[in-house]
Amino acid sequence: MVHQQRKDPLEGATVDGRYVVQSRLARGGMSTVYLATDRRLDRRVALKVLYPHLADEPGFVDRFEQEAKSAARLSHPRVVGVLDQGVDTIGGQAVAYLVMEYVPGRTLRDVLREHGRLPPRRALDLLDAVVEGLAAAHEAGLIHRDVKPENVLLSDGGQVKIADFGLARAVSATTGTATLVGTAAYLSPELVLGRPAEAQSDIYSTGVLLFELLTGHQPFTGETPIQVAIQHAQSEVPAPSVLLPGLAPDIDELVQWCTSRDPEDRPVDGSALLGELRHIRQTLTDEELDFAPAAAPSPALHQDQLTATVVPRLPDDGRTEALSRRDLGGDDAASPPGSTDVLPLAAHDNATSVIRRDSNSTRVFGAVPAVPPMPSSPPAASGTGAFAGGIPRRTAEGTRLGSSVDEEGFDEDGVYEEGFDEDGFDEDGFDDGPGEGGPADEQHRHGSAASTGARPTGGRTGSTVRPPSRRQQARQAQRPQNTLHGRTARRSVRLLVVLLVLLAGLAAAAGWFFGAGPGGVVSLPDVADVPLATARAALDEEGIASLSTEEVFDENVLPGLVIGTDPAASSEIRRFERVHVIVSKGPELFRVPDLLGGTQITAAAELGAAGFAVGTIEEQYDESVAAGIIVRQVPEQGAERRRGSAVDLVVSLGPEPVAVPDVTGLPEQEAVAAVEQAGLEAVLDDAAEYSRTVPAGAVLGQSPSGEVQRGTRITLTLSKGPRMVRVPNVFSLPEGRAVAALEAAGFTVQVDYTFGSAVLGLVAGQSPTGDQPEGTTIRITVT
Fold first, then answer.
1. Contact present, 99 and 85 (Cβ < 8 Å)
2. Number of domain units in the chain
3. Is the pLDDT of residue 737 over 60?
4. pTM metric for this prediction
5. Of these residues, 8, 16, 84, 146, which one is catalytic?
6. What is the mean pLDDT of residues 513-529?
7. Which SMART domains match (predicted)?
8. How far apart are CA 267 and CA 276, in angstroms?
9. Which of 74, 315, 352, 608 is within CB 3.0–4.6 Å of 347 for a Cys-Cys bond?
10. Which residue segment(s) compose the domain that 76 sits in?
11. DSSP 79
């Protein structure tokens, strides 16, 4: 038979008149993600549509809108942006949707499926991007609550983004005040125990994420998500080196710092973790960053597998219908990996159940109460009674089988059942109705069988006669008797005396406890600026024994000295309360980057990224380094300095300039030798020029002049000497015309007068004549 795949009813639909649904991208436990087109802005978006049962919850729409607005205020390159939110009605069904930026690519879960585990360098690079997004969210007051590989997107362009901010809080608020939302494999202990989520909850999930990136395995596994969650609350996350021997100790410390069961022992938020993470990445060697184990890690040798655990028992108030086989990890569980399932709210009654393994999915759990399991007893003689195996059984209406005691303690016959509650249980928590017969009941019957005349029962005598129950004894006690027994009165007196003694002891113990004992109030001493041992001694003197320490970097307090305490000094606390002592590690040191060979602009950018500042800048000539390049730095590369320290730079001005010697008028060989001696290169111009003043073969001109860089070419122009010009014939010309003609030909003129002055004004003679060098003086005689 050919099965035709049903088309998604939203494909092709238009949500809110704006978003045209094209295709389904993914489907989870809380929502379905579609690829859609925003018709208004003509762009592709990711449309997350929550399941109808969430949208139908009273008040959910308001909470969902509030969380969406909070997430939309967070704009960061490491966070998937929230663009729009709303509720529409399609086909008569409410559709609550969230519009996010579309990030084509894959999730971090896909990367883990492909590679199994990642080398430390790649794992820390990915974690850096995740923590950077969390740091921005924590600074804005947002907590993710569901950090896992499925919510980390890797775009085709290499960008890393975190998705689903605020969705977990909206769903958690919808399912009830005692529930939590998260993926069991990444849940922090405080969320498992029903405490409020804080920034440290995201840090714990991030630490588990790093463990999985490094080893390819989650730290805890179990038959069902509840088992895994309880392991997070009861066990410490192992160091990754347990599965990867030889892994750098710094990475082990980072994972265990993030996954401490006490939130106070973790980084306070994403910003604190980001600073430490980047410091560790700088201190690790290339061998440690590229570490690869000899064999693939096997978690089976290092993890305890739980098969049964104490889980909260559901109250019979009508909500039991919500508990399906899928909720308890039964055969009907078919949630895909990374999906969200809703489990019913847990009550405070506990029952022991065997739960099954489920897929790695985001779930809504009832808060797990920190109460011990009900003590078990051997099975009763009859397993069909109302008390089988020591566990009371109830009908669907919530009453005890075989009992009909009302709220005032009267049964169906109107007889007052003293010592029984409204469910028919006595003061010891045992059901004495029909069908009892467990060993615990047996012990309660020994003292009453004789007074009623019933034969005692016991396995040793082989008797099958059942004695009257305490219910029957109570009825018989109200019937008329011939004699009165004094044993009951005497027993009451003894019980009263014991009770008074116990109350006096409790009062004395309480007085000691809240006075000189651990419950007494003391003023927390000021232990700042003293060594840790001295601080411990001062706190011990006050009777404060519960201490935790944390080492942090501090710019002002010397290493090993106490910075302060939490609570602060002079606070009034009780001696049993934990005091957090903060110890200084001194100023945080960072490695100076290598700046040689770069420019002043690139050096300033690198120093700023590494937490340093640009110091003084000195310029000097360098024969081998071009101008503008850094030739020296102080301190040198690799030196460790405090954040904000200045790094001095020496910038090259290039080769030192030299003065060009003046060789004008010198013969060619002498001029060339003088130029080369100055470190310059002499080049002769092919075109020599005439000169009236410079003889032929001498330097007529040079270029450039002044100061130039060493090795610069100096062009020398040689002289061809004066030009030869024919002297014009000016005989018998008037004096004026003769002088003008000679000067126009390039000669100078000297006039002599025959009679001491001009009489006729005509040239009577000239000398020299013929071809003469330009500029020669021509003498003319005027009559």
1. yes
2. 7
3. yes
4. 0.44
5. 146
6. 80
7. PASTA, S_TKc
8. 9
9. 315
10. 14-101
11. B
